[in-house]
Amino acid sequence: MTLTRVAQIAQVSASTASRYLRGQLKVNPETAARIDAAVRELDYEVPAAAPPAREQPVLALVVPEMVNPFFAGLADELAEAAAMDGASLVVGITGQQARRESSVSDLVASTPAIDGLIYVGMHRENPRLTSAIAEGLPVVVLDEEIASTPEVDTVAVDNYGGAYQATSYLAQLGHRRIAHIAGPEELSTTRDRCRGYRDAMRGAGLPVDEDLVLHGPYTEQFGASTFPYLAGAEHRPTAVFCGSDIAAVGMLAAAELHGLRIPEDLSVVGCDGIRVGEWLRPKLTTLQQPMTELARAALELIRARIEDPARAPQTRTFPLQLVIRGSAVAPDTPESPE
User: Left if phi > 0, otherwise alpha if psi is -120 to 50, otherwise beta: which for 96?
Assistant: First the structure.
């Protein structure tokens, strides 16, 4: 009988079963009992020569890219948290491509040396990841939810509440024509931030001009490319809530080319809290992601999942904090709703 069959009966991943039987991984007594029972039931022969015990896990982190400082910062926080916990961390980069997300998931799932996966994706569908979770690979999904997956541990932020707070802040400053530069429409973060923006506009008694809601990738290029559309709207905006800091960086960099001053002509609020926002002129008002808390929660959940694969999945959600800097101010002249 194969080790895979032992793992299936014990309701653990093949990696967990292998490392436990070789003395390389400590699991809780209930999990140990299930693996031992499966070994007896199948009369599985455990290799006699076991290598020296290694108690600390090897974890994989999958991220879309490192060009966006948000993902680079998140990877850095996770690497720091893993090192402090004594775990090893390897990083895979998918280039925001669905095919590479699937292939990296397959590689992680088929590598016994990897004990668990912290997954940050940019596509809602990943059938290989779904299969890996069903097969018992310990997984924590971070930031972006994945459709059609079994119940899985997740770590996220309150994107709806953050977007509501940012848009309400612009309305409180006196802005009445507020644009929203949003991410890809299929992503859960995009949908939640867009919903928060719309509800905040409604709560402030302001109409949403659909010409001022633009969707695109989380890139500097997309942020810079929005000006012709905003300038071509029937009623130009005086403020914008940008669904990602990296797109907001593109807007600040390109504003002068379009004859606009930020914040005098256009107030900008971003989302993510990347460090480069503090070095811009003006400094970027943004929704700060709690990077350290996200990393620690992901690490805590993946360790718990490795030790007890049968435990009930958990979801940890953290608030976004509005950090007020210089890129958003009251409009020069009071506005009235259109």
Answer: left
Residue 329 counted as domain residue: no
Contact assessment for residue 75 and residue 66, using Cβ atoms and an 8 Å cutoff: yes
- Give Cβ neighbours of residue 334 (< 8 Å, ≥ 6 apart): 174
CA nearest neighbour of 327 among 293, 276, 257, 292: 276
Q: What whole-number distance in Å separates Cα of residue 41 and Cα of residue 319?
A: 48
Report the percent of the chain where pLDDT is more than 90.
65
Cα distance between the two ends of the chain: 72
- pTM exceeds 0.90: no
Average pLDDT over residues 291-312: 92
What domain range is 96 assigned to? 59-157+292-318
Q: Per-residue pLDDT for 273 more than 90?
A: yes
> Average pLDDT in the 213-224 region?
95
pLDDT at residue 19 is higher than 90: no
CATH number at residue 65: 3.40.50.2300
Give the full edge-to-edge strand order of the sheet including 285-288: 213-215, 178-182, 239-242, 267-272, 285-288, 321-323
Q: Are residues 272 and 304 in the same domain?
A: no
**CA distances in angstroms from 186 to 125, 190, 269, 275, 295, listed in the order given:** 10, 7, 22, 27, 25
Mean pLDDT of 122-147: 88
